[in-house]
TrEMBL record:
It comes from Caldimonas aquatica. InterPro entries: DNA_pol3_chi, PolIII_chi_sf. This is DNA polymerase III subunit chi. Pfam families: DNA_pol3_chi.
Amino acid sequence: MTEIAFHFNVRDRMAYACRLLRKAWRSGAQVGVVGHEAWLAELDRALWSFEPVEFVPHAWAGRAAGPVAALTRVWLARTPGELPHHAVLVNFGDDVPPGFERFERLIEVVTTDEGDRLAGRRRWKHYSDRGYAIVRYEVPA
């Protein structure tokens, strides 16, 4: 069964995403990120520039081929079905990602925005109603 973790009280979604993906990349994890396409495009740019002397190597699922695809561990995708692995899925979207149950782990990121918190509660209920054990992380301010 998929391990599910919620990261609550995130103040800056983009900065948090960059730090989370940098940590995952450094650990060697295979990670797929889903969310709204416009937000993913912003994340794509941010991963190149959020730190002055480093970046997080990543690629868009379905667009990378050859050596780039073989070496990539962080993938951006509109839907989980586009991802080339089933290891870790990070959801920055409003809805339950379709096919999340195929992944070993799912990380849900919830900001301090009230609308985002309501969407996060709906996703929590969805997983809970289906018997998933959920780990809750409170992100320090």
